[in-house]
Amino acid sequence: MLSLIGIAMIVNSGVRSPLLLIAIAFIPRLVSTIARSRRPFRTWTAAIMGSYLLVAVGGAISVWRGSIRYGNPVTFGAALYNACLDPLKALTSSGIDTVDGLLLVYSLPTNIIDANLTDLFKVVQTAIPSQFYPNKPEFISNIISHELLGYGAAGMFMSGPGYLIMIGGSWLAAIVIFFLGGIIFRQLAGRRVGGVAWLILTYTLIRFVMGGDAFDFYQGLTLVCISVTSLFAAKCARLVSARLRRADLKAGERMEFSLD
Q1: Closest Cα to residue 52, out of 88, 19, 96?
Q2: pLDDT tens-digit readout, 38-96
Q3: 3-state secondary structure of 197
Q4: Cα→Cα distances 140→29, 106, 173, Å
Q5: How many CA atoms lie within 13 A of 147 on its CB side?
Q6: Which pLDDT tens digit goes with each residue over 137-149?
């Protein structure tokens, strides 16, 4: 119930990225369930229905946000109803940000946006609390969306290649950076890591290829911090629980000794 309430809150907020995170976490478990299931028909039916709803919700959010952005607001319920009738049309009718963003970046003059490799430092700068760093630099996607496209909020997906072209200055530099980034991710993936680490790594990579900004790596860093904090809290709880059990055992032994 808590998971369903959380997903409903995410959908109502108009944010699509957490849905991608949920899907990446869900798909490997679904494939494993289908492989081990003795009733594959029911599992495949559930998988198809889940995929249908995921596409429909993603398309509805795209149409809903797009209509608000262009001053023609519609209710999310109406957008979801129309998306359920034709989810693929709903998903593509509002524009595929990743492709549109790549074409936009390719058509922009090279000197219109002041961007270079130091833009990646925004990952760390954004993680600093605003109380200590109030004037944080804005992400490139937001600058382009606000100043060139007139968006009132959020930023357009520029795609991973589009972002690398901007900070590298050319297609060749983008290819080299992408290749080096692939080596880094390969080294990280080659280590023995748990399921949560795999999830964060996969999500960050897919999101960067689709989105294309330092913000994507910032989200990955945020997930790492949340996971590390949760693991630390769980370990502290286990240590406290173990000490309490030992204290109870010692108290019980003293009680038995005093009775003897």
Answers
A1: 88
A2: 777 777 777 787 778 777 777 777 777 667 666 666 777 777 788 888 877 766 665 55
A3: helix
A4: 35, 15, 18
A5: 10
A6: 888 887 887 777 7
Closest CA to 141 of 62, 57, 225, 217: 217
**Structure token digits, residue 116:** 């270079």
Who wins on pLDDT, 188 or 177? 177
Contact present, 61 and 154 (Cβ < 8 Å): no
Closest to 189 in 3D by CA, of 180, 178, 198, 176: 198
pLDDT in tens, 18-42: 766 777 677 777 777 776 777 777 7
Residue 43 and residue 33: Cα distance in Å, rounded? 8
**Measured between alpha carbons, how far is 17 from 49 in angstroms, rounded to an integer?**
20
Q: Say which residues have a Cβ less than 8 Å from residue 75's Cβ, sequence separation at least 6.
A: none
Q: Take residue 102 and report the two structure tokens written for it.
A: 């790549």
Cα dihedral sign for 195, 196, 197, 202?
A: positive
Q: Strand, coil or helix: what is 176?
A: helix
